[in-house]
Design a protein that fits this description.
With 80 residues, the protein is of the alpha+beta class. It has one domain. It is 32% helix and 14% strand. It is built from two helices and three strands, in the order βββαα. A three-stranded antiparallel sheet has the order 1-2-3. A hairpin with a 3-residue loop joins strand 2 and strand 3. The termini are far apart.
């Protein structure tokens, strides 16, 4: 199995579809989340999709500091 390291910062806190910050986490194991635009989804699956997209993300590299990652994610939502 081939593996790749990516920056995991905030991958379970932002929607992989629209980029919005999730409103809340709930469920017996906090596995469910809600996006204002896209609705309810599994936070673990959302994180996996975000991790996959980080493979080709030129702005967020493996060594981008987590605070900078958050700035980038917030700016992307504002631009959309």
């Amino acid at each position: 199995i081939e593996t790749h390291d990516v920056n995991p910062a905030y991958t379970s806190q932002y929607c992989p579809i629209c980029g919005q910050h999730f409103e809340e986490r709930y469920g017996s194991h906090h596995e469910l989340t809600k996006c204002k635009k896209c609705g309810e989804m599994n936070a673990n699956i959302a994180a996996a999709k975000n991790i996959l997209s980080r493979l080709t993300d030129e702005e967020i590299t493996l060594y981008t500091p987590y605070k900078r990652v958050k700035e980038i994610l917030v700016s992307r939502v504002k631009e959309a």
